[in-house]
Known about the structure:
Chain A is built from 13 helices and 27 strands.
Amino acid sequence: MSRSILVIGSGAAGMTAASTARKTDPDARIVLVTEDEHIAYSPCVIPWALEGKMTWDDIVMHDPEYYRQERDIDVRIRTKVSSVDVDKGLLVAGDEEMTFDSVVIATGGNVFIPPIPGRDLEGVHVVRTINDGKSMEKALKNVQEVAIIGAGVIGLEMALSLIELGKRVTVVEMMDQVVPRILDNDLAGDVRRYLEDKGVNFLMGAPIQSVDGDGHVESVTVNGDTVPCGMVIFSTGVRANLELPQQMGLDVGALGGVRVSPSMQAYRKGRLVGNVFVCGDVVQCESAIVAGPTMSQLGSSAVRQGRVAGINAAGGRALHEGVASPWVSVIGDLQVAGTGISSGLASWYGVDVVVGTGKGFSRARYYPGGTPMTVKVIAEVTTGRLIGAQIISGEDATGRINWLSAAIIERVSASDFISRYENAYCPPTSMVRDVAFAAMEDLVSKL
Amino acid sequence: MSRSILVIGSGAAGMTAASTARKTDPDARIVLVTEDEHIAYSPCVIPWALEGKMTWDDIVMHDPEYYRQERDIDVRIRTKVSSVDVDKGLLVAGDEEMTFDSVVIATGGNVFIPPIPGRDLEGVHVVRTINDGKSMEKALKNVQEVAIIGAGVIGLEMALSLIELGKRVTVVEMMDQVVPRILDNDLAGDVRRYLEDKGVNFLMGAPIQSVDGDGHVESVTVNGDTVPCGMVIFSTGVRANLELPQQMGLDVGALGGVRVSPSMQAYRKGRLVGNVFVCGDVVQCESAIVAGPTMSQLGSSAVRQGRVAGINAAGGRALHEGVASPWVSVIGDLQVAGTGISSGLASWYGVDVVVGTGKGFSRARYYPGGTPMTVKVIAEVTTGRLIGAQIISGEDATGRINWLSAAIIERVSASDFISRYENAYCPPTSMVRDVAFAAMEDLVSKL
């Protein structure tokens, strides 16, 4: 009899797991169940869709019918899985019981909204699904002032999109810098100044105290001050959606994600559960930087994890290696990217670091259209190995952060990088010696 | 007494060697001697300067006075070194004798012009120095038809610049594809079609037989056919300029460059010469791909080698590792990049390869402004390790080829790459899973 694989969740992790399972086992019965209405889209694009750079329809790559016809995957939308019995291989989806040989849990995460007064008022939004985007789009027609809570990359991308739409925007961040944890303070300052020049107002270093209004949002209170606004957007980070994993008795790690083995299998009371695979925002995986767990809640990480979960769920064999979690964000004319851990996070881990900064350009200095480029690299003092890197540039940060990410997972030092790594050069796309090398030289000079 | 370091040549290798020597030994006497009039510029930019994207003055980063004042480097332009006596530590530059403790040979290369009739006619040009560029610029005022001999990246960049200037352009290439040796035939076909659409005419698979004219170029003859033209540009590859090395008795390798150790020291009759360092287009260095030598005649390679030569010439210690030689070329709206060895070159080396191709986009599929992106990866059959990669894209090829280059020098396989390497993702700069991974999957499926 053919293998029955059930996938719960239709984000990047779930869709990838289902598709990879199909490639691995052409004969399996594969059902994907999701509470969402839309599948196969990237929530990361919501800020630009809201801005009108493309339609909501554009960003949906495929519908359930496509998966049924092209990949023989039975996709059930708007269907909630209420319980999973691991031992019996049985789950309840909507009002239907389904049996499985293996199950993939890709239930993602939810935006964490702090437990403050007014958080349920009309006019409070999050940036998570197409329907979230559509409801903001509708509401914005009657709103001129927006408060964004949380200055992470999504909050900042949203801020700039709303500025483009002609709104007045205040960003509230409880930490003392934008893009906290993953970007160093100095580069964060550059990003903040850029946004301030674009007209974004910042309230830093104090948490939001309340959302105020009578039925509908009228203001938020921060540090005792009232900020008038007709919309509040929480971009306060994503917490793993643990409802099902907890119901199933799966082990949850210290960082709040489901514990998994490198095969993306779940644990229950410390023992591997053979037929349960977990991937995406809901899991806690291994870091490539420090010995221990990390949360890598990125679309690209979801795809990597979904691939491993899908292969293994279908009887294949794949392992998920530790992650450096490279990321990139486009904030107006800035591309901001990072990988590994920031100086701040290193200090939190108790790792002594030395930091190098290089400043240059994205093209040859004189080549029209080039932009300033700053590259920052971070190494562990004890071993000299690179553990983090960050880039701000007007262009071409993505490939470069992937490159630096490779150096990090290969555990090279800055001096190794200088002697072994090479950059391609053409005046319209690079300096003859890429800015990354200037950062490495600066780092080496400080060791 | 302070160390005396003489550097011969003012290209990327020589200038870098002199500057790095200065950083290594603040007290040294450093003299740089060059036949050129201009120093510290990138000949790679000539096609765009000719097109008028910047002035000739723009591309010169520094003049001799800058080096004298800022780096205490004595730069002698328009000065030919006629002889170097290694044993006595003595050279003759112009009519002056200079003593040295160490000497850096960075005499670069010359464009190879085949020994055919008419190669000395007026109207025959090469793309090597600013003065070459200026003389083309002047001559082009009275020229409508140009023949470019050699369809390497410089020839193609020149072709498109001349099209932009409204000229009629014919490219003559003796091989049956453009960008021979370093680009695979299929991608080369894409590049050629792009240029044909822009109006470039190609004559492939036959060498030039003669340049014809009475005093001045009137046509070229290729395969018996006459191609009328008022200008002929040879971009037929660079040969190491061995005049001085041969006079000094330095060993020359099988590929036609000066043999060097990883410290960039020269050999004489098989023995290291302690005080002679060689770098840039004139050297033959070690490949990171195959056991054996390679010529890495790139500006970025010249900088890497010049750095090592300069440090060692000043009494420091640095080594030059094997090279994958990543390169990128911008041809109109195309960025074409490569690293390691091509399928064709692998076959020449007797290496059996398996090739994977990925097709996708430079941004999320629906994101405005994105372009198609093709990534090709090449692995050795016996070991599975990656030995080459190529990219065609409208944007962001440079960082990505550096990334793939890192994987190659780290000797990872395509399946290693899939399980260990990560990509940053943001809809305006990448697909959620970078096209490189599609290429790797395709390769793995063929193993």
